[in-house]
């Protein structure tokens, strides 16, 4: 491994650690664990209610673990379980209006920080960064 690759790997590790720390701070401000916050964000990002199985697949957690996550999020008022209108046997998880708005505001703070950080870069540089990060994600 070259010195440049070692530096890039170290930077990737530091970025990952910084992102985890930032997300943990946001989760704590909302009174959530990092895992519960992440799962709630997945539902917000989906833009539609998700099944527990979909949340499990997106988060990498087991369906059993997701049951506990959804229970906690529901008790905290962030999500609610609803019946699928087309298949009454299916249960969906949706964000609640008030707590969903709180989640979106918290997500916007992180988005704004990233946007401000990248604002000094050219469109071409941002496109290269996006390409690099996307390739890195696919490789992992």
The total of helices stands at 6
Quick one: CATH class? Mainly Alpha
Shape: elongated
Count of folded domains: 1
Main beta-sheet strand count, sense and barrel state? 2 strands, antiparallel
CATH topology: Arc Repressor Mutant, subunit A
CATH homologous superfamily placement: Winged helix-like DNA-binding domain superfamily/Winged helix DNA-binding domain
Low-confidence stretches: none
Strand order of the largest sheet: 1-2
pLDDT averaged over residues: 92
In CATH, the architecture is Orthogonal Bundle
Which range does the strand content fall in? 5-15%
Q: Return the string of H and E elements.
A: HHHHEEHH
Q: How would you characterize the overall build of this protein?
A:
The protein is mostly helical and 140 residues long. It has one domain: Arc Repressor Mutant, subunit A, CATH 1.10.10. It contains 6 helices and 2 strands. It has helices spanning 3-29, 34-46, 52-59, 63-75, 97-118, 123-139, and strands at 79-83, 91-95. Strands 1-2 form a two-stranded antiparallel sheet. Strand 1 and strand 2 (91-95) form a beta hairpin. Helix 1 (3-29) crosses helix 2 and helix 2 packs across helix 5 (97-118). The longest helix has 27 residues, at 3-29. The radius of gyration is 18 Å and the shape is elongated. The mean pLDDT is 92.
Walk me through the topology.
Elements: H1 3-29, H2 34-46, H3 52-59, H4 63-75, E1 79-83, E2 91-95, H5 97-118, H6 123-139
Antiparallel strand pairs: 1-2
Key attributes of the depicted protein:
single chain, 140 residues, mainly alpha, two-stranded antiparallel ribbon, 71% helix, 7% strand, HTH marR-type domain-containing protein, DNA-binding transcription factor activity, WH-like_DNA-bd_sf, MarR/SlyA-like
């Amino acid at each position: 491994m070259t010195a440049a690759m070692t530096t890039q790997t170290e930077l990737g590790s530091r970025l990952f650690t910084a992102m985890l720390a930032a997300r943990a701070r946001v989760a704590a401000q909302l009174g959530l664990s990092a895992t519960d916050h992440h799962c709630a964000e997945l539902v917000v990002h989906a833009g539609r209610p998700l099944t527990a199985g979909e949340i499990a697949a997106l988060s990498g957690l087991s369906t059993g673990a997701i049951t506990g996550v959804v229970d906690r999020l529901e008790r905290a008022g962030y999500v609610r379980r609803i019946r699928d209108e087309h298949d009454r046997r299916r249960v969906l998880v949706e964000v609640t209006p008030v707590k969903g708005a709180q989640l979106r505001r918290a997500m916007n703070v992180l988005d704004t920080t990233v946007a401000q950080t990248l604002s000094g870069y050219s469109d071409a540089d941002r496109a290269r960064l996006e390409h690099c990060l996307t390739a890195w994600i696919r490789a992992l």
